[in-house]
Amino acid sequence: MAPISRIISLKVILSAAAIGIVSALAVRMYQRRKKLKPPTTWEPVGQVKNLYIYPLKSGTPIELQTALCTAFGVKTPDVPNLHQFRDRSFVVYNKNDLKFQTARTIPKLVLIKIEAVDENHIKFSAPNMPILTIKAPNRIENKVVTISQHFNEKIPTIDCGDDAAKWISQYASEQKMELGIAFHDAKQRRNLSKTHQKYFGIYPTLSNDATGLHSDFSSYLLVGESSINDLKDRAPEANIDTLNFRPNILIEGTPPFAEDEWKWVKIGDVVLYFVKWCTRCVLTTVNPTTGIKSEQNEPLKTLRTYRMLKDLRKISVDGTSPLMGINMAYHSGEKINVGDVVYVGK
């Protein structure tokens, strides 16, 4: 009888454990839903000054008057017979190890421009390079490659073909790498579960649903103009530009760094929620109009003197990079216009 008793006891223990796990998950999901419930009261704090989309990760932005907002980030308005760009949908990668490349290591990527030729074709241009025109890649005619981004996160994306590879390799020839260009068609979500676990307990609203296409973290980056102006005043010789910080949404009319405290933002009919503060890297030291890195390591050098994380738990995952702007994710709504009033949830 003893073995049977032990078996029954083991089944009871396992059942209890299973119930406990399910209950914990249910509580976590309930708490997450509760946290992601938008507020009902909103306070006006400023307005939208500029809207930007970066079709190529690290490339030149396109300035918009109206931005369509999706779960994957900003999208260009629907213009008849023209391709609609999504934010950071294109990315440069090393064809040998399949690792993504940015202006952190290839500064002059910031000078590459992308334009829509028609609904099915796009063109790339860069200084001292012929114009490259390609058909917008798709999963039927192009191969899918799985590239690696931060923390070795694997992202399936569509290779843009041999002509694009030759063009970008020629442009960045001093890197002595065989490069390619890839395109994310927003058909599937990224999966952070294996690579970003250490962030989840510290930033509870960071999830797969918060990600953009090839963005570092979330699908939207919001910065206050006065925050950048505050930095300019502290480093007047640094020639700091708004585009050093590559925001999607630039807000005017707010005090410096007011955005640090915002958990919910409503602009037009679009509602966004806070994911994490944006930690800044060496890419901000690349001049967006020349593609040359600052020899003085500005604006990072000055930013580090007064814009550092203080919470040891956050430092444990984000390191010692300084802060500028907030990473946000999509909750609901359709579009944002320049001049729209910005509301913060109370």
From TrEMBL:
Q: Does the keyword Phosphoprotein apply?
A: no
Where, by residue number, does the polypeptide cross the bilayer? 6-27
| InterPro entries per UniProt | MoCF_Sase_C (IPR005302), MOCOS_middle (IPR005303), Pyrv_Knase-like_insert_dom_sf (IPR011037)
Answer whether the UniProt record assigns the keyword Kinase to this protein. no
Q: Name one GO molecular function term.
A: molybdenum ion binding
Q: Which keywords, in A-to-Z order, does the entry hold?
A: Membrane, Transmembrane, Transmembrane helix
PROSITE patterns per UniProt: MOSC
Q: Where is the MOSC domain?
A: 189-345
Origin organism of this chain?
Photinus pyralis (Common eastern firefly)
Ranges in a coiled coil: none
What name has this protein been given in UniProt? Answer: MOSC domain-containing protein
